[in-house]
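assembly run, all chains below
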Amino acid sequence: MKIQKLFQKTLVGIFFLFAVISLSTSALCIYTVDTHLSAEYESNSRGIAKTISDSSVDILLNRDLSALQSLIDQFIEIQGISYIYITSEHGEFLAHTFVPGIPTEIARSDHSSRATVERSLPGMGDFVEVSSPILAGVAGAVHIGMDTGLIALKIQRAVGQQVYLISSIFIIGVFSAIWLVRLAAKPIDSVIAYAARLARERNKDSSDDKLLARDDEVGQLARLFLHFSTVMDFDKARGTPPGENA
Amino acid sequence: MNGEPNPDGRTEQTGVTDAEIVLGVSAAFSGPSRGLGIELYRGANAYFEHVNRAGGIRGRRVVLKTYDDGYQPNPAVTNTMTLVQQDQVFALFGYVGTPTVTRVLPMLKKFQGKNAYLFFPFTGAQPQREPPYGDFAFNLRASYRQETAGLVDNFVSIGNKRIAVFYQADAYGRSGWAGVRLAMSRHGLQIVGEATYRRGARFSGSMRRQVEILQQSNPSAVICIGSYAACAAFLRDAVDLGLEVPIANLSFVGSENLLKLITEGREDSRSYTNLLVNSQVVPSYEDTSIPAVKQYREMMDRYDPQPPSHVLKEDYTSFSYSFVSLEGFLNAKLMVEILRRLGHQPDRDKLEDAVFTIRNFDIGIDERVSFGPDRRQGLQQVYYTVVESGRFVTLKSWEDRFAS
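ok done. output:
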């Protein structure tokens, strides 16, 4: 009964330990993945925006806008890039990838800013927008929106995989704990049984060779029980209180 | 390139044997724009069939090596690579679409040592008409700039100055949009509203959102730069939502396919076609007073050209006549003339020179064809058509038809 209680406490302990591990590693994972992915996406987007802006100069100055559209259509196929638009130095949209139309928030925004902008577009999602000037800005700018929902999805996947791993380890740990506690409890049960037998059958020969022959703590405990029993029998025979001549 | 026959009967010239001249085609034979590729092919094949039955060009049959790109850029690039490198065709012919052709052009520049020219693509976009890729293509049709300028000028002339644009979100749409923008700027005007759709949209899809976006700008006319399925869907939803302004389409739309979609299953479809006007780059196939039109109709009837069965993936009901197949027919007629001018041993190295010998050539319509180093587009004229009695006819007066 006491062993079962001891086991329950161990189990609760393990559960709390794993919960703490799970929560702390998930939080760390979210922070790490979010930070790294956001930085990586922003860096890639800036690189792509710069590539497009560098390529756009010749097209804007010498060629038809369909060539510019063809150029940005190739980049929109890259995962994570949700929209691209190119504005003139006057803020006019020269090419874009929006369907069914340019979102009002973007149409009304200041396109001269080169800072990274966080946008929440109704019906489209959340985006981080980076810009790159064309010909130092005198010919306009390229703007690229990357979907932050994709980062959230990747975080979800990473955390999900981590929770799955920790849960698997937790289940294996619980079964291992049950097996180990049972293994540890078995000789203790034998000692308890031996002690009970000694108390019950004091006049009989209660020696248990196997138990007394063990060289571990259980054997020592059994031999101690036998010793106390023998001392008690001896004191009883002499009429002295138990343990006085020990 | 000496023209000596090799053991398998082929001469040294790429794409030419003693029996054949092979032209390579990559076009939309599947997907929602397949009607364009199929009709263009059928029109061209009617004339090639006529020439081949009459003994070919100096004994050589004209053969089309055909691939389907579904109106998608990447397959068009792959097909072009196959046609030039593997099939070694004599020339590329009758491609369909701006997003496909604009992606193929850099490849032609890469193959410039092989003189792999593209003849008469079914697109009016600028990239194949100007540097750096204009030297690798020859166009017969008028450009989108000319079509959109004509539409804008006519709308403005009747007082419809608030023009909005509905366009395909790609190079084709942008080319048309840029044409409208340029034409409007000449009048000191700006595009009042714009809405887009994704390439590959079907007639069954909704364009209500696009109509609502354009309605907010209160336009007095809408110019559509799209394919027939999407433009028919837009027209349907525009009329249903009460956008009662003239709606124009460019020649690329494929007028008969559009009309078929919008009128099919409707007892009275006049409300959907009353305000419709389509620009064309060939004259009306109803006008049999035009020699080339008469010849086209005769050959379409006589040969009944079929779509290329090996690339056909979906059912398609052909039209007896259409603007697209008439354009294909005229393309083939001019191609044959160019091949004839190459003499007994057609050589790709001499192809460009042969094209430049085309001066004031009578192709059988009311406009003569000329080419030169600075003129890589044969025809300049734009025609306007409206629907009457269930078919497209030449628009007689913008004022009478559309003035409010």
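The longest strand of chain A covers residues 125-133.

The mean pLDDT of chain A is 85.

not gonna interpret more than that til we talk
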